[in-house]
Amino acid sequence: MPDEPLKEPRLPEQSQLEDLVQDAIARARALGADQVEAAASIDTGLSVTVRLGETETLEYNRDRGLGLTVYFAHRKGSASTTDFAAESIQATVQAACDIARYTSEDPCAGLADADRMATMIPDLDLYHPWELGAGQAIELAGECETAALGVDARLVNSEGGTVSSYSGIRVAGNSHGFLGGYRSSRHTLSCAVIGKQGEEMQRDHWYLAARDYSDLDAPAAVGHRAGERTVRRLGARRLTTRQAPVIFEADIARGLFGNFVSAIKGNNLYRNSSFLVDHLGRRIFPEFLHIHEQPWLKKALGSAPYDNEGVATQARDLVTDGVLQGYVLDSYSARKLGMETTGNAGGVHNLIVDPGERDLPGLLRAMDTGLLITEVIGFGVNILTGDYSRGVAGFWVEGGEVQYPVDEITVAGNLRDMFAGISAIGNDVDRRGNVRTGSVLIEQMTIAGA
Fold first, then answer.
1. Over the Cα atoms of the chain, what is R_g?
2. Domain extents for the chain?
3. HSE, side-chain direction, 13 A CA sphere, residue 334
């Protein structure tokens, strides 16, 4: 197979997309739109999966798009296209304008305020293209899977080793005069394998993700971790129903704080569909807990200089001393609530839960007896009421030491009680996503089993 690396100029010059965005905005204004925002993007990537030594998938993608939103006296219309030809852009602009004329007027609709627009686009070191060819990607994915299957003879099947590389450029602008853009990249290594012991079968995985491929571990190390994680689950038992302390391993704990973000998002707040409505200034976590947003971290996966409306992002506290300091708002939800946007159109940017002093073994010793959760299954979170019920797998702990793996159990509680019941955050921080946290020890939850 020819090994042709993905090389620049696979992405265009930023000025080309800037011209495209400005042209679309000008066309909409010419058709009478009071306010206009537009964004254009081009993405390219390569993904390879090797399963049982054979190349299972080899995918190359190159996507592009232009999206446009127009406002006529608070009436909104949106349209998009993947065709950058002038006649297609004109048709897209016309479609957005036509849609707006049929929609109801909403006094909260419109661009974010002009004085909130980003005026500086810092270099956040987000772009590190990987000149990865198909042959090299297949080799790396194969190394990852081989290392995983080589951990133990009981590892008998595989879902494959996968290598993927993505690069993209996005430019956004609006009729306030905002125009900004930046390039970004994301590269991943992952592997999932299946173990068998008697009639029992277990599966687990591991992955790494980074802006810069040189920050990834060697494929063999990723595979070996996946193999070890699968083997340690063999011999799983079920638990009887009980009340006990619980530790959410760091990569699972991210989901808990994702639930927290959902509960303080503007769209859930103004609809009164969150258990944290009207909780600004109230304590919802223990006093030691500090949660903050850091959008300008170099190389971080959640970093961005501005949000989806062009509003400048900024570092801020969401929780200080356990007290809720701010919501997660875009301009529309902020207006519905009589507040100001927090620069979170599109979500949070690098939500950080400050770590404690203990590593995961230290948390296990602090817990003494309880459940370590390493996987959650299904959906069972009600943001309106805070009720939480998830299928889980993990390990039973006694005397601060793992005793045996467990599965086919459920943990249940209420997020309000779970947040208040956090007794420690580990220093084993997972940096592979937009939420950075260590493992989380919760004083007590209901464990439903046999």
1. 24
2. 14-231, 236-450
3. 20
